[in-house]
Amino acid sequence: MQIIDNPKPEIFAELLARPVFEQADIMEVVKPVFEKVKKEGIAALRYYSKKFDGFVPENFQLSGNELKKIANQCPRDLQNAIRQAAENIKQFHQAQMPQFSSIETMPGVKCRQKVSAIEKVGLYIPGGTAPLFSTVLMLAVPAKIAGCKEIILCTPPSVGGIHPAIAYAALISGVDKLFLIGGAQAIAAMCYGTESIPKVHKIFGPGNQYVTAAKQFAFLEGTAIDMPAGPSEVLVYADKTAIPSFVAADLLSQAEHGTDSQVILVATNKNIVDKVLNEIEKQLQKLPRKEIAEKALRNSKAFIIEDDKKAINLINEYAPEHLILSVKNYKEIEEQILNAGSIFLGNYTPESAGDYASGTNHTLPTNGNAKMFSGVSLDSFMKKITIQEISEKGLNNIAGIIEIMAEAEQLYAHKNAVSIRVKNRNL
User: Fold this and answer.
1) Catalytic residue (one of 279, 321, 351, 403)
2) Burial letters for 395-414: b for 16+ Cβ neighbours within 10 Å, e otherwise?
């Protein structure tokens, strides 16, 4: 990790820049995939599965019996852990169910809002170097609570089949259909629909830079997406009360996600940095994904900042996906954080808790997008519809306001839609 001592605030943005990918080049790869899938459907999916995954399943859709058979291979202790995590996620997201009541903005003018679930949603679960069964829970559980009528899941095929934990998580969390298809071709299939994979209204889930670009392309084609996403990241703010081994473990937990992940340490003095880096070196040697974590650490930085106010400014500038506050006054600091995907308070709140089982959602904005995006929540699977009802008395009360405003905008048909009712209200 690069160590930066007491940087000037005016260069925070420069120092905190994420690794850059050539988006235009990636889009050039993604665009033909979409065109071929749109034109050829399932034949294109077979072509790209062979090309990118090296395997074409006999059937892209897993039957209910096949899903159960694979899920039964999941070890009992892991099944129990997944069930408890699902229950915690369910409790947290059920509490987000919006409650609205009708209000009268003027006498006779009643307004209210109702919630409607997005009917068809598609969930993408990467294959790659780790089976992200936890993401199945994070997406399917709130989709089910929201009332989505059709929840489909796409995950890459392989000769050995899907991981039993992915199958088990899908089985217990309400996924309706599971398809063995990955990469940009899976996103294209959910965007357009094929002979077997239905078109959805919104696509959720993480993935590599090609999947991310594919989701953005799908958005341009009229399918909503959860958020712009990028490599995983964490920022830990540590003072003398932090436990260096804990901080090192949290940094490594993100570094092992992928070589393009980024971890940031902000410490109040150099002694903390030195102790954390020493712990990182010791813990790194024991990690099966050591090489991945080492490469991620090359993109990572440690800042020495003695002043809380300056550290808070740096945190808000970076807008981390995950923020861990390992400082004595973490409650006071947390109140001043404006930009973060998810915040973890104190020495005994590891980021891993949010990744798996505390109940909060781990599908979060990355790459600085926490400045303007929230993470996935129950709201992500819903639409809000406004409703108004105006009585004759109410129309009399509001008519003059509307007529004046419509005329000022030179929209006379708008004005007339009110005037004609006022003049003929007894018809």
Assistant:
1) 321
2) bebbbeeebeebeeeeeeee
